[in-house]
Write a structure and sequence with these properties.
This protein has 1000 residues and is an alpha/beta fold. The protein is 54% helix and 9% strand. It comes from Parnassius mnemosyne (clouded apollo).
Length: 1000
């Protein structure tokens, strides 16, 4: 086995250490890309195992060499290696390069090191008590930072656990031998920015993403220069004629027709950032790219509205399933509009079209012999008098090693494994907490086993167009034989089964939801079969976007249905599934309300395009990634403000100020053509990655073009040339003209990611959207701006995000949605009883939210749902004022608890900062809570005094029985004493009053 590497590449250390630990011999070969031996990505080090197997990723190579791949739960080792490659390695590359480092970047690196230090405080090694591949990768990346004394003092002085771990590994014989073979010195010095060699994960966004030498990994070839010249002269002429904009989009003969879907978001909650990047935002970026290439594109989505989750949410909020769907459809629609998601049509599944198409497909499936009847053991709640669908039952997870006490009847949120409801330990009805019994229920099943052969044949050929997570999930499902799967269930809310015998049942949501793509297309076009059952002369490709948990329904269940129906329906060509996006150090959770949600993003004041850019830059394409407030600020300030925004504003400002806004003539030299060739290399990579759904990687290449432009501006120094000789002035004019063309190219390539920003930039360029297109068959920089074209007024595109704001936002969105609601006095459920003071506080907060939204956009669809909430709150306030309040002991207890918590919060804030604007709002909340507590205590005393004279023995006995039942249910549902103790206090008080009444 051979390692090809360049000098001082610490990623090579990973391979050498892994090989030594595994007692494998490696030959170290010094190489450059000019050697002509590489046929894959231009990335070093490269591990050549034999003629058939080569690794271009150092982490993948280290995993291959080191036999202990993952000793952690849930793939944490792979996640840590992704974290090392995409976050730690770029930050260290920046500080180890010997250049001045911005304070926000220093803060990022220090936070990363402190996270490692905290992990090592708990464990001997990064992930536990045994060495893993993650230790090897991270130690190698930290090597230059630790062994350069000044860097160690600046960044590691307070990381004692990390230093202990580094020294312990450094003392190991295998690592000492690897360092010796590598050739580095324990005390340095290291060669400037080549310390970490070429970046290992090409999806990084520079300069955080990769060292500067990445731009010129190899000079342009003569063929590339000639292609650059051809594209510059004839690029615009060779583009296809733009398609006319039609209100109803249908396939067009002779054009590439692209049908795009994103997994239908469920309507039982507000979408969080993980949902948004995993589905609708990724699909929107790709759809906008397709339109940029002038593909005939239809992008449809909609809310998934049937199933148990809708019914349970409706029960929680005291309204009907239809009302809950209407409510959350408006919320989802407003969130996506704010994020600038450009659906061609955003629909829903609770439509007549959905019922018609779903029933038709099912009956055809039945006629073809793929539906059977089976008796199923189901949980039945005798108190509710109904069979319990999976989401209506909770209990202890039956899987060994998990035993999570709030697992659902279909899946455990902790271990992620699927569950049959009757397998739950100590099951309980989610509605009444009663323990259900097991009863038989006759259900209809789809015989997946009979369709397995055809499904395997299709998947084996189709999966070449799928992302790695989609392929992995498919192979895991097809590892074993497929079994029949229930397609009906005992519910009321859903598509009715069109068979008289089963008229009281509905279709299972796994069967119903994917059919929503067809019904929503029908609502959008009235001719859905033209897309979903296209004639042979139409070239239609189906692209689907989702998180990996939705993959089984799109590669197993729905394709099996379509194959069984056998009427020529379109099967998916490309599935671009993602892994999961985590939140800071935890996980996003809709059910528990953890993380940043779509409505939260609107309230931060950070523009939607910044959110789009950041989410795309951390898109979890190959493994889980994490949202970080600090990194959000760093990416905005470094990438958008200092890199992209700086280049665009400087280029256009030079044109406006020096040439009166007229684009100067560009007389290209050989050096200019070589520069364009390097730019074209990035444009080609952009297109290639976009076509494969690698949106994060494509974004990296866009930012590389911006860096090339900045470097060209600095090296040419047109502000100097324009003061020189005629030849210098011509050269300076060419430099400005070329930079303006690069701005136009950036505007085109970034439009899928940042549509609002690019609309503003187009105004500054004075160009129509149709003028900024690319040719996917021959991607290159073209003359978007003819000589003499008059641009608009240049303006800055981005603003700095201050660290103080990020700290406030991190604190604001900590905990769960319900925690925040309590702190902010929000009223979440119209069915809950609230005080006049709580409603007044909620109206104030909601009014402010409405004002901010109206100031940020003129789109009524964005802010109208919030206006409706405000009006509803005002109605509740009027009703509350008309009804005398009776305050009970439990409200006094809850207020006492709230006062204590708020007081603690105020003390911590005052200790952390002297800025009164930070903690004064919290002080005001504390004072308001104290006023409420005083009033509640007085009211409780008066109410109890009055009640003691009027209580009847019978009414008190009834109240005690009801309260006792309430206490028992609460104690059965949770061990949290803070939840049920107030109810116990009420029960004790009732018993005292009964004793007094009986004595009378």
């Amino acid at each position: 086995m051979k390692i090809y590497t360049n000098d001082n590449n610490t990623a090579t250390l990973k391979l050498l250490i892994a090989a030594n630990l595994a007692n494998k011999k490696l030959q170290l070969c010094r190489a450059t890309f000019e050697d002509g031996i590489f046929t894959g990505p231009q990335v070093l080090p490269l591990l050549e195992v034999d003629d058939q197997l080569t690794f271009f990723s150092s982490n993948a190579a280290a995993q291959y060499l080191f036999p202990v791949l993952d000793l952690s739960e849930n793939g944490q080792c792979q996640q840590m290696q992704e974290w090392e490659a995409t976050r730690l390695q770029p930050a260290i590359a920046a500080v180890a390069g010997g250049k001045a480092v911005a304070s926000d970047l220093r803060q990022v690196l220090q936070s990363l090191l402190q996270m490692l230090d905290s992990l090592l405080q708990k464990h001997k090694y990064i992930l536990g008590e045994k060495l893993s591949a993650a230790d090897i990768s991270i130690w190698s990346t930290l090597y230059p930072l630790y062994y350069e004394e000044s860097l160690r003092q600046n960044y590691m002085a307070e990381c004692g656990n990390l230093i202990r771990w580094i020294n312990e590994l450094a003392a190991a014989k295998s690592i000492q031998e690897a360092v010796k073979q590598w050739g580095g010195s324990a005390k340095g010095p290291f060669g400037a920015s080549s310390t970490l060699g070429f970046p290992q994960i090409s999806s990084l966004v520079s300069p955080i993403g990769s060292p500067d030498e990445d731009l010129a990994a190899a000079g342009a070839t003569s063929e590339e220069v000639e292609a650059a010249k051809e594209g510059w002269i004839n690029g615009l002429k060779n583009m296809q004629t733009p398609l006319p904009q039609e209100k109803i989009v249908l396939p067009v003969k002779g054009r590439k027709n692209i049908l795009i879907t994103s997994a239908l978001p469920y309507v039982n909650n507000v979408p969080h950032l993980g949902n948004i990047i995993g589905c609708v935002l990724s699909a929107d970026i790709f759809a906008r790219y397709c339109r940029l290439c002038d593909y005939n594109t239809l992008y449809i989505c909609g809310t998934d509205e049937y199933g148990t989750a809708t019914e349970t949410k409706a029960l929680e909020e005291g309204i009907t399933p239809r009302e809950i769907c209407d409510k959350y459809f408006d919320i989802h629609n407003a969130v996506y509009r704010w994020f600038d998601i450009g659906f061609d049509y955003f629909g829903r599944t609770s439509t007549a079209e959905q019922t018609e198409i779903a029933q038709k497909l099912f009956l055809k499936l039945m006629d073809n012999g793929f539906v059977s009847t089976q008796s199923v053991e189901q949980l039945f709640c005798e108190k509710c008098e109904r069979f319990l669908a999976d989401r209506f039952v909770e209990g202890v997870c039956p899987h060994p090693g998990c035993l999570y006490d709030s697992a659902r009847g279909d899946q455990c949120d902790k271990c992620g494994k699927l569950i049959n409801a009757i397998e739950l330990v100590e099951p309980r009805c989610k509605v009444c907490s009663h323990k259900p019994t097991v009863r038989p229920s006759e259900q209809l099943f789809i015989e997946l086993g009979q369709l397995e052969g055809a499904l395997r044949t299709w998947a084996g050929g189709a999966e070449r167009g799928w992302s790695a997570p989609a392929r992995a999930v498919t192979r895991a499902w097809l590892r074993d034989s497929l079994r029949a799967r229930a397609v009906t269930r005992d519910l009321k809310w859903g598509v009715p089964v069109p068979i008289h015998k089963y008229a009281n049942k509905v279709f299972y949501v796994w069967f119903d939801a994917p059919i929503g793509y067809l019904s929503i297309t029908q609502c959008a076009t009235k001719q859905y079969e033209k897309w979903w059952k296209p004639d042979k002369e139409y070239d239609v490709k189906l692209y689907q976007f989702m998180a990996k948990d939705n993959v089984p329904f799109h590669v197993i269940m729905f394709p099996a249905t379509v194959i069984g129906v056998n009427e020529g329906h379109k099967l998916v060509d490309h599935i671009f599934a993602t892994e999961y996006l985590n939140y800071e150090e935890g996980k996003f959770s809709k059910s528990r309300g953890v993380g940043v949600f779509g409505t939260d993003a609107q309230e931060t004041g950070i523009p939607s395009d910044v959110w789009r850019f950041y989410l795309a830059s951390i898109r979890p394409e190959t493994s889980d990634s994490s949202f970080s407030w600090t990194e959000l600020g760093t990416r905005n300030n470094s990438e958008l403000l200092n890199n992209l925004g700086n280049f665009c504003h400087r280029s256009l400002s030079f044109c406006a100020n020096t040439f009166k806004g007229k684009v100067p003539e560009t007389k290209l030299t050989q050096a200019d053509l070589e520069l364009i060739a390097l730019v074209n290399r990035e444009v080609i990579a952009y297109v290639q990655n976009m076509e494969k759904g690698r949106l994060r990687e494509s974004l990296r290449h866009v930012m590389s073009i911006s860096r090339i432009g900045n470097q060209h501006m600095q090296s040419e120094q047109p502000w100097v040339l324009l003061k020189g000789s005629d030849e210098d002035k011509e050269r300076g004019a060419t430099a400005i003209g070329l930079c303006c063309q690069l701005v136009a190219l950036l505007c085109a390539l970034l439009a899928p990611y940042m549509p609002h920003t690019c609309r503003r930039l187009r105004e500054q360029l004075n160009l129509e959207a149709v003028a900024l297109r690319i040719n996917p068959q021959n991607p290159s920089l073209v003359q978007y701006l003819p000589t003499g074209h008059v641009i608009g007024k240049p303006e800055p595109l981005f603003a700095k995000i201050e660290p103080e704001l990020l700290d406030k936002l991190r604190a604001k969105y900590a905990g769960t949605q319900s925690d925040r609601a309590k702190q902010n006095g929000d009223v979440k459920s119209p069915a809950s009883k609230v005080t006049v003071a709580e409603l007044e506080a909620a109206i104030t907060a909601q009014g402010e939210k409405v004002r901010q939204l109206k100031a940020s956009t003129k789109d009524k669809a964005v802010w109208q749902p919030e206006v409706n909430k405000l009006l509803d709150l005002k109605k509740q306030l009027e009703a509350a004022r008309a009804t005398p309040e009776v305050t009970s002991n439990d409200s006094v207890v809850s207020l006492e608890k709230a006062v204590a918590e708020q007081g603690d919060k105020v003390r911590k804030l005052k200790a952390s900062t002297k800025d009164k604007t930070v903690w004064q709002p919290e002080v005001d909340k504390l004072l308001q809570l104290k006023k409420q507590l005083t009033a509640a205590q007085a009211q409780t005393n008066n109410a109890q005094s009055a009640n003691s004279d009027t209580d009847s023995v019978a009414s008190l006995e009834k109240a005690i029985a009801e309260q006792g039942d309430k206490v028992r249910k609460l104690k059965a549902s949770t061990k949290d004493k803070a939840v049920w103790q107030p109810e116990v206090n009420i029960l004790l008080d009732l018993k005292k009053r009964l004793s007094a009444a009986q004595a009378k």
